[in-house]
Design goal:
225 residues; alpha/beta; four-stranded parallel beta sheet; 8 helices; 36% helix; elongated
Length: 225
Amino acid sequence: MGTEALLRAAGVGSGDEVVVPAYGSAAVAEAVVSVGAMPVFADIDPATYCLSVDAVDAVRTERTAAVVAVRRFGNQAAMPQMHALGQRHGMLVLEEGEQGASYDDVARRRTHAAYLTARLNGVHTPVGGESHSYQQYVVRVPGNGRPDRDAFARVLRAKGVDCRVPVKTPLHRTPQFWRDVDLPETERAADETLALPVDAWLSRRDLQRIVSACNALGGLLQPAF
């Protein structure tokens, strides 16, 4: 059952607020609008890119009926703490998943991620964990007011590395869902993140090429002050 159906089944509707992430696709926010409720954006945890429990607590009001946490890049929000928050304040807590993968594919991606993390420099590698499935291998290219991430990505693509910006514009900065809210971690992630290839089918040579291309670009980066 999808998010919209679950919200409807729980009686969430007009006059209710539902806390959702602004970092990601619009599907969850659109599901909230479809049931007549108001999406409220909360900030993310900078390590997992998923909703921060503290940020959800900070934006909830007496009209908050539900929270929809979304798995991002193979990461999961702190769901036990999220459920505890929901129980304390009478909020429905839902989790939107990502497309599944076979055990072998996940194991292979984790092996590839470990290889990249051990060898990359000049970028901030993802914070791993036992539950991280590496749906995407997302690094941060730190900037200091210049489009360092975008310049980095252009050069990588020219070297044959199929990288991409995972979230170009947070939802609260789009015309459809514009909100005058302060989500610093969300905006920082949108400015700095870059997804590198970590697919199960990649060869060791492919991974070596990614590392070589990235590490050769260290000179493009300047420390942020």
